[in-house]
Amino acid sequence: MPVHVKQPDQTRIVAFLAGESNVSIDDVSKLYEHERATLALGARVTKFIHIFAIRNVQEILRTRGVDQRSLTVAGSAFLDV
Question: How many CB atoms lie within 10 A of CB 21?
Fold first, then answer.
């Protein structure tokens, strides 16, 4: 008898990540799916892949945010000269 494993609600996950990072749901969805697929390659246990995918996406979005803020700050300082 197969055991039913409840899959995480990807729509809610993506919406949360998008709201947390102020990035469009479409962009976060693509990023999340890419991370899940990458992690699933060769994985023996797939039950917790979504957790690692969330962490990876958060880190990517955090890095992008830092890069954007750096460009904005550096750009505004450059423009003020």
Answer: 18
Is the CB of residue 17 less than 8 Å from the CB of residue 55?
no
Task: Answer yes or no: is 43 within a domain.
Answer: yes
Sign of CA pseudo-dihedral 53, 59, 62, 63: negative
Parent domain of 17: 10-79
Decide if 2 is inside a domain.
no
pLDDT in tens, the chain (81 residues): 444 555 678 999 999 999 999 999 999 999 999 999 999 998 999 999 999 999 999 999 999 887 777 666 555 544 444
Q: Which amino acid is at 42?
A: G
Q: Whole-model pTM?
A: 0.74
